[in-house]
Amino acid sequence: MNADYLYKRVSESFEKQSFLTLIGAKIEHVEKGKVIVSCERKETLLQQQGLLHGGVITTLADISGGYAALTTMPENSEVLTVELKINLMRPATSNKIIAVGEVIKAGKTLVIVESTVTGEDNKIIAKMTSTMYSTHS
Amino acid sequence: MNADYLYKRVSESFEKQSFLTLIGAKIEHVEKGKVIVSCERKETLLQQQGLLHGGVITTLADISGGYAALTTMPENSEVLTVELKINLMRPATSNKIIAVGEVIKAGKTLVIVESTVTGEDNKIIAKMTSTMYSTHS
Amino acid sequence: MNADYLYKRVSESFEKQSFLTLIGAKIEHVEKGKVIVSCERKETLLQQQGLLHGGVITTLADISGGYAALTTMPENSEVLTVELKINLMRPATSNKIIAVGEVIKAGKTLVIVESTVTGEDNKIIAKMTSTMYSTHS
Amino acid sequence: MNADYLYKRVSESFEKQSFLTLIGAKIEHVEKGKVIVSCERKETLLQQQGLLHGGVITTLADISGGYAALTTMPENSEVLTVELKINLMRPATSNKIIAVGEVIKAGKTLVIVESTVTGEDNKIIAKMTSTMYSTHS
To answer: Do the Cβ atoms of C56 and D19 come closer than 8 Å?
Structure first.
């Protein structure tokens, strides 16, 4: 599977997710086992202190991990998040946050991923580990 | 602390969160140690299969747990999510989802909560456990 | 499947686990979707402050959840822990701890469980959620 | 703080934990923010298929992370595990397993760590993220 194919596969699924459009998530990079997505601070995405909401950060981590998993799955598979655990370590004061999702164990049915969310200063905002499930159609 | 006071405390913070307005989250119930919030299916909140996005479900679980924690904290405290872990168990096919957040251990600095997200049929969509942190101002 | 059969199934697997003998874990109760196990404080199971070690508490939570999952799986299945998340909420000052494992979603391949560990005073020591995997032989 | 001091601090606490003696855990390396521990396969540490028990793997991950956290805390602090989440990815078929615990965010009260458990072949057996709490005496 080449990079163009993987990018197309991820972006076609990505564009079907209206919630990702709503929060303005963007695909930055796709390779086998690794997907990077980003999101910019907007007035509609904030929590009570004016910082990017934890729900946005978690969503970004989740999709970077989910799509990283998808790149290791057979064609016609869909990816589902079985569970995710995220530690929110620093407030997201940055104008842009970036989530790097990587596969750490690619199984046939289950794919274990982690995702690191950083700001423009490269400091870690959050770290997620997650179990993804492959459904074959 | 009476119920009116707790409701006011939660709703004032809630209304400052623009992201909660964006997803249409609503407060259903507030009591000491327990907060219920809900959210309706909208075209902008979906994943690639047309179901409510996991990020929305997780956000709802998080805020129900966070505000449940807040009701046990001293006045002038703010609540931060240290970490959350959520198992997504069933697709959210319902038109409305409800998250019931409850405190299971109220400490001085850390409050441990869980949240159960169900659909209108009362089936469990997701279950979260989370560690909340109290910051005093 | 009757209760005797389920008890036999769990206890046969239980007895093959030398580590459970080492820590003195005991089966207290088995029913479909629910298994209770216990463990007593011993001089060999302690942490630096003389309390039951978190590793013992976590092991007990894990096996109560794993065996609860097994009771919902087809014969000849084995159960594997995919992941577990545990919040350790109170020190285990009790002479005996009890872990109640319960299935909250029984799928074909994945079974989601939770386990609550309490002391003799019924106070919650720890709460776990976990994803179990069924392997068919 | 020099390496000898940190090693002494960790090993003095380590030796007080009878459960670590029971499972035969050993300190391999101590530096600020990073602790490596190991454990060998023994007949008393197995699960039903004759592999190292998940409870042993989790304990090893926990203590590597806990002691990594301790090396960043003020003198006279004790470290407590607030929560841990571990993904068990491969069976522990190795005769020896090694857990590398590292601090990813050192706060005043909370320290976030991760731990990677590998076998002698360097393949990842398990990955943990955890929240540690510093108690000052």
So the answer is: yes
